[in-house]
Design a protein that fits this description.
By secondary structure, this protein is an alpha+beta fold. Helix content is 19%, strand content 44%.
């Protein structure tokens, strides 16, 4: 009895290559491509850092402004530099841009801050902060008796 041999013939190779070319071509045509210019605009990298600021015995360090999605964030670390418990007011942060236009942001980190403790300041805004050049901080403190 003779057995049928299933050999790979040049015709089979050509058929397989043509099928692969058709599949790749269809994927290229029917799978939507992302618009790269749109992606760059949406993920525009904005990351500004500023020098530390001391105001009324509170050290504001690691001050950053960055953009995430369509909002801007200002973050900082507020540290009580004394050995006393301080009563604190809300923080008023004034951001000045290149044209000397001010943007005022207010944050609240609690009524008191213990000696040498830190709190994170996080402010989210829809105002455009990418041209900020200078930051001033105003906070009122009073030693708790």
């Amino acid at each position: 009895m003779e057995q049928k041999v299933n050999a790979i013939t040049p015709v089979k190779i050509i058929v397989i290559v043509l099928i692969l070319i058709i599949i790749v071509g269809m994927c290229y045509i029917f799978i939507p491509k992302k618009d790269e210019t749109k992606i760059v605009k949406e993920t525009e990298l904005i990351h500004l850092t500023f020098d530390d600021i001391v105001e009324n015995h509170i050290l504001f360090s690691d001050i950053k402004i960055f953009k995430k999605d369509h909002d801007f964030y200002l973050t900082a670390k507020a540290t009580n530099m004394t050995s006393n418990i301080l009563n604190i007011s809300p923080i008023t942060i004034t951001l000045t841009d290149q044209k000397n236009k001010n943007t005022i942001l207010i944050s609240y980190i609690g009524e008191t801050i213990n000696s040498e403790n830190s709190r994170n300041v996080i402010i989210k805004t829809n105002k455009n902060l990418k041209n900020t050049k200078h930051i001033t901080v105003n906070i009122e403190t009073q030693v708790q008796s």
